[in-house]
């Protein structure tokens, strides 16, 4: 629930995000959740006040049990205090076939979901092109 909470601020999207993460777990796919990488970076630097707007490719290899790109399954503990909407989303996830998602460039705060890696690559490239155009480096 803490990962779902940190993944999206949009409460109406949390059941869909929860469903995607649960689909990944059920299929034995790593969560690859950026919020866990952000938490690992903050934990390593002991600076939880820092603002990280962009996860870099190099960040994905940080050696931390909280890094769900490196370690399979759930991290050893919560990465935040989830609110009731995130807890409810995990207890009542949306049923779908999505296993991939990335931030939307059309609907700020929301995500684009995909069932196949090819679909996800299109969404991810669109997001990468957009964020590169903003000059956001961290």
How many structural units, i.e. domains? 1
The shape, in one word, is globular
Strands, count: 2
Secondary structure class reads: mainly alpha
Which blocks of ≥5 consecutive residues have pLDDT under 50? none
Q: Mean pLDDT across all residues, rounded?
A: 97
Radius of gyration, CA atoms, in whole angstroms:
14 Å
Beta-strand percentage?
5-15%
Oligomeric status? single chain
Largest sheet: 2 strands, antiparallel
Compute the number of helices: 5
Strand order of the largest sheet: 1-2
Q: Considering DSSP H and I runs of 4 or more, what fraction of the residues is helical?
A: 40-55%
End-to-end C-alpha gap: 25 Å
In short:
This protein is mainly alpha-helical and 138 residues long. Helix content is 41%, strand content 6%.
Describe this structure in words.
With 138 residues, this protein is mainly alpha-helical. It has one domain. The chain has five helices and two strands, in the order H-H-H-H-E-E-H. A two-stranded antiparallel sheet has the order 1-2. A hairpin with a 7-residue loop joins strand 1 and strand 2 (111-114). It is globular. The two termini are 25 Å apart. The model has no long low-confidence stretch (mean pLDDT 97).
